[in-house]
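Hi,

Apologies if this is the wrong queue. I'm a grad student, and the batch job for Probable queuosine precursor transporter from Corynebacterium aurimucosum produced an output file that my downstream script rejects. I'm not sure whether the problem is my script or the file. Here is the sequence I used:
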Amino acid sequence: MHTIDRKRSGNTKTLQAKECHTACIISAQFIDLYGHSTESAPPKQPVPLQVLRKQPGEGALPISASPSFVEKCCSMTTQSATATTTNGGESIRFIPVHSTLYPWLVAVFVVTFLISNINATKGVQLGPLITDGAFFLFPIAYIVGDVLSECYGFKSTRRAVYIGFAMALLAAVSFYIAIWLPAADFYEGQEAFAATLGLVPQILLASLVGYVVGQLLNSFTLVKMKARSGEKGLIARLVASTVVGEFGDTLLFCAIAAPVIGIDSFSGFLNYVIVGFLWKTACEVIMLPLTTLVISWVKRREDYVPIDEADAPTAAPSK
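Support response: The file is valid. Your script probably expects a header line. Output copied below for reference.
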């Protein structure tokens, strides 16, 4: 186990480690554990606190970071080295759980998608409008997708999309196994159970194709626009990415799912596509104030430092 001493000198915090090559490793993987995108360098906001990395035969290498980020680094280093507990005098080691909002957002993202696959098996008609039972859930997935893309980047969002894809496949296989298993004599819902969940694999194909293509288009568009405009123009890139992503998602989903839920005419298909696209896009536009608030809150919680601020030169002291 590494022994870590903390020394304070003025406003500088220095970590020294005995019998270890690195006192506090600030790397892309290290940052990723706290939700910072591995696509960019560590935050370099010029502040008094610094983390000094010292390797054998080398001098200390300062890496500027925000004060709260430094505290997390120190806490994480200490916790990683001493994540033990005792049980009857015996030491037990565990992997420390680090604080970040990313897994919570991924959980909401994936669960919303899984529920949508089941709800989408029901066709819904509201007056002249034709849609499916998941029409009110898909906007939530795209709002969370916007938050993931804006705060964590394309690679982290793509990872969440792939997790949702894998969990949806697991759910479909589980449903089919449950349908295939012989029903108990007292169970009277076998036909209804099979009729409802038996459609899921067909809806799943439509959902997966639309979901993967739509979410990746949404994330790719948002990240590319952010690369050009920086922190400015958040509303514009949220709306533009939504239009691109929702159109791809809705068109592909409807093309595959329409026959499954009983839409067999071109007019019905066109109605389904247009209503679905307009509804989902309108919901996201209406929810933009909430989306921007969530994005701002996540960035504050994750100690996000904009590139414009991180790279800004420090003002010279006045004489």
